[in-house]
Amino acid sequence: MEAAGKTTAPTSNSVIQTMHFLIVFLGIVATIAFFIIRAHYAYGVAREINRDTKGLQHRAKRSFQNLVGTRLSRVRDPQLAAAILLIQIVRTGSPVTAQEKTAILDCFHDPMRVENPSAMFAKAWEYTENRAFFSMVADELLPLLRDRLGNTEKQQLVEMLHKVASAYNDVGELQQSSIARLKKRLFL
């Protein structure tokens, strides 16, 4: 009988150790599950708050822009403004091609007489956005162009826009209407 008692004692210790390990393992799994469920709930609540406050976020952004102004509205150099428009007219639909870039740089040389055309192109490029609407960009630069350019310079700008827009292909319908809109608003 003693032999039977000795063999059962180590078995009960191993069962107790296994039970302790199982309890610790289940506790860790339960803790991880609790935090995952809690994080999922917090994410859902945060997303709902974000959706509910979209209007407030837009209003705050507009108020800040009205106070400080957008990047484009802070441009004070009419040459830079013209350069931005020359790039944006071809950046509206597709990437700028080599022919379009050459036409832009040619405009920087001849009518605009820019001292460093490459630097002007790089600086103006930072103000443009791929697939941004030309009219929205032009509207922000329009007060500067209207005030600082003479009628001859305004006409040259419109001609340069046509030249750049037709550098790779024929002037597209959207480009044509955008240039016509700018011309109409520029000469008011």
Question: Key features?
Answer:
188 residues; 2 domains; mainly alpha; elongated
How would you portray this structure in words?
The chain is 78% helix and 0% strand. The protein contains eight helices and no strands. The chain folds into two domains: 52 residues; 115 residues. By secondary structure, the chain is mostly helical. The longest helix has 51 residues. The relative contact order is 0.10. The model has no long low-confidence stretch (mean pLDDT 85). The chain starts with a helix and ends with a helix. The protein is elongated and about 100 Å long.
Topology (elements, then pairings):
Layout: H1 2-52, H2 54-68, H3 78-91, H4 98-109, H5 117-127, H6 134-148, H7 151-165, H8 173-186
Can I get a quick summary?
With 188 residues, this protein is mainly alpha-helical. The protein is 78% helix and 0% strand.
Number of domains: 2
Distance between the termini: 114 Å
Uncertain regions: pLDDT < 50 for 5+ in a row?
none
How large, in whole angstroms, is the Cα Rg? Answer: 33 Å
Note the main sheet.
none
Summed up, the helix count is: 8
**Class by alpha and beta content:** mainly alpha
Average pLDDT score: 85
> H/E series, N to C?
HHHHHHHH
Strand content: under 5%
Question: What gross morphology would you assign?
Answer: elongated
Instruction: Tell how many strands the DSSP assignment holds.
Output: 0
Helix content: over 70%
